[in-house]
Amino acid sequence: MSLIATALDLILSGDAILLDIIALSLRVTLSAVAIGCMIGLPIGAGLAMARFAGRGVVIVLVNALMGLPPVVAGLLIYLLLSRSGPLGPLDLLFSPTAMILAQTVLILPIVIALTRSVVEDLWGEYEEQLRSLNTSKLRAIPTLLWDGRFSLLTGVLAGFGRASAEVGAVLIVGGNIAGHTRTMTTAITLETSRGNLALAVALGMVLMTVTLALNAAAYGAGQWGRRIAG
Amino acid sequence: MQILQILATASTLALMPAFAAAPGHITVASTTSTEQSGLFDYVLPIFEAESGIEVRVVAQGTGQALETGRRGDADVVFVHARALEEDFVAEGYGVERLDVMYNDFVLVGPGDDPADLAGADFAADAMAAIAQAQLAFTSRGDDSGTHVKERTLWEAAGLIPEGAWYRETGSGMGPTLNTASQMNAHTLTDRSTWLSFENRGDLEIVFEGDPELFNPYGVILVSPDRHAHVEAEGGQAFIDWLISQEGQAAIADYEIDGEQLFFPNADDGS
Questions:
Q1: Which of A170, B9, B246, B252 is the most buried (most CB within 10 A)?
Q2: Under 8 Å between Cβ of B29 and B77
Q3: Does residue B19 register a pLDDT over 50?
Q4: What is the pLDDT of residue B1?
Q5: Optimal mutation site among A27, A35, A38, A83, interface B, most CBs of chain B within 10 A
Q6: Which residue of A lies nearest to B192 if distances are taken between CA atoms?
């Protein structure tokens, strides 16, 4: 009961620090989802339609990368962005940009793998039709992506879920700096280690509420789109 | 197409402010104990208001914090493992180690104190009593300053802890205390983390006060000779403030439930 009360208090109080943390979490994760889609959708579709030696290996690799531990992704980005690493001069470590990069690495395999699977099915269905219209494979990609948009939305949401739930990567590359790189999940980790379990659970409930609202919005938009599209 | 446009705009907006990170900030690699104690939340706003320099604290174990400094990813390190700090300076990664403050370690365990640790004369004797009775003990096991101190105490007691009663958590002080409170086990903790820790269960301080348990904190500017990009000016300003009368007073003023957590000692000389 006190947990729920703490959580409600936290949400209803409109605490400025909490709002900043929520805003940063959303900014980082949504940016990563956007970048992941911009790169992942075309690559996934290409992978679905292209035929080349080693294609099977690439598909297995991408599928396996869906299971990449966030802490490993974080460590790789850390070594890349560290002042002693190859991209050190950019001075990006312990910044929101570094966190976006790390989460993009986590999201990308999910978007590529699910896009590949959706587009491959659609291509099987429409191949003859598109060929008879003399459409090249490359030009068919936007059509297929558009046609599969509702199924693809699930993949995008899965990517969002993976990124918004992870703590290992953002903790390493962001550093959980108060007011600068502290997100919902790193704040939950900090409060847990402080033994402040009520606040940690309350923050967790806030995170779930935000995730729920986003998924509801996506579902609603999908239903609405389907109705419009007939 | 519209979707792509929105996506592109969104990601540009998201990236822009991060790339335009303004100067006027320094990065301090410090320990989980100082962060979790709430000390920084108390003293940093005072320094920031005065100097206009934003201090970004990355809280890690002492070993990791020194590694962050070595790689040039922080401007200042603020940690508590003196021997490791002196190595850091000797290897040329740090300019100079300065005393800032100290607190102490305490041994916590079940309040009924079955092995009568409270009656022990020295910390090593208390540790030996725990091992003798095979009472549950959780260890950090993470090469942190606290873990280093714990190993020193086992060595002083002349024994190697092993067996089902000895559990390494491989995590920070908070998670280790959470585990200890669930298992009703003993553990070594710095006093500041203990005072700010809320999930104590039946645990209480069962041994304290041995000079062996002294826990000094040092501050070091990462060498600009080694890493040219270090914000030496801002970092030095922060260090100067910490060891100034005002900074020392701010540290001494920080209390939880009326109990002072850290004792300034910058003037002691070293």
A1: A170
A2: yes
A3: no
A4: 44
A5: A83
A6: A194
